[in-house]
Design brief:
The protein contains nine helices and seven strands. With 274 residues, the protein is of the alpha/beta class. The structure holds nicotinamide-adenine-dinucleotide. Nicotinamide-adenine-dinucleotide (NAD) is lined by residues 11-12, 14-18, 36-38, 56-59, 84-87, 109, 136, 138, 181, 183-184, 186-189, 210.
């Protein structure tokens, strides 16, 4: 896929999936601008790639607007915009125990940053007859992340918003991709590694690398596919959820029970050590 000279912005690009997508787009010839809230790793990553960077907290409407309009004025109209920044919340105890400010943060980062970016970018993309919006959601948005209700609900809303974009603006030449991976070996899951190619070879079952996600994104761009599922199991699980919801809920309840038992076991193993 040739992206020669296309201008691409990636948020949350200091590490993990965002960095891997930024690298892949650059390898295809795009002029990539890396953006993140975290200045040090962002500058390091941008320096290593020889790319421009923009510090931006996507939770802030003002910063997001300034970043997008700034890039457009200084470098040119944005062809590819990757809304990738994301955070876990993790329910402290029960499913409603995450405090309101973390629900708001999840909503702002996982949903409103996608909405606000599209609001700024769409009029120009429509006028030019093309553009590409890539929104990184999660399999949690399709299947639920046990133990993180704010993450699951906001990612579900992100999937829904991307579907709206694709349905409303396919005829305007806007390519939309919504990316829903399961577990990816990034700093978010404790893989403290900003270089996706340096990850260990013996990843646990089901865990893929940020580079695998980037490969799936580029393939979807080439195929013109909206829903990007880097893990093959997600499609069949989603189908079960749609066609036999009761079976899916039962299966998830079983998973929840197993997760609780494993947690209790690791807590009691720990108590033997101390
Ligand atoms: N790692 C996984 O298992 C997994 C699975 C499915 C989806 N995802 C999603 O993929 C995306 C990338 O996550 P990752 O796994 O690469 O994790 P990561 O922690 O490596 O990357 C997230 C990046 O987002 C940045 N960020 C956080 N809050 C921000 C804000 N307010 N403004 C700007 N930048 C901000 C962080 O500094 C970080 O560089 C996220 O949206 C995440 O929800 C991750």
């Amino acid at each position: 896929m040739q992206l020669d000279g296309q201008i691409a912005v990636v948020t949350g690009a200091a590490s993990g999936i965002g960095l891997a997508i930024a690298q892949s787009l650059a390898e295809q010839g795009a002029r990539v601008i890396l953006s993140d809230i975290n200045p040090e790793p962002l500058q390091q990553a941008a320096r290593a790639m020889g790319a421009d960077f923009e510090i931006c907290d996507v939770q802030s409407d003002a910063q997001l607007t300034q970043m997008i309009t700034g890039v457009t004025q200084r470098i040119g109209p944005i062809d590819i915009y990757v809304s990738n920044a994301g955070v876990l919340s993790m329910d402290p105890t029960h499913a409603a125990s995450t405090p309101d400010d973390l629900w708001q943060r999840a909503w702002d980062i996982h949903v409103m940053s996608h909405v606000r970016a599209a609001r700024i970018l769409l009029p120009d993309m429509i006028a030019r007859g093309g553009g590409c919006l890539i929104n990184i959601a999660s399999a949690a948005g399709m299947l639920t992340q046990i133990g993180d209700a704010a993450y699951s609900a906001s990612k579900a809303a992100a999937v829904s918003f991307a579907e709206n974009l694709a349905i409303r603006h396919g005829d305007d030449g806007i390519a939309v991709h919504v990316v829903c991976p399961q577990y990816v070996a990034s700093p978010m899951l404790g893989y403290d590694n900003a270089a996706p190619d340096d990850l260990p070879n013996d990843l646990p079952d089901g865990l893929i690398t940020p580079r695998d996600v980037a490969d799936a994104v580029l393939q979807a761009m080439a195929d013109g596919r909206v829903l990007v599922l880097p893990h093959a199991v997600v499609g069949p699980y989603f189908q079960t959820r749609a066609t036999d919801h009761a079976k899916w809920i039962k299966g998830m309840q079983g998973l929840n029970r197993r997760a609780k038992t494993a947690q209790a076991r690791s807590a009691s193993d720990f108590s033997k050590l101390v």
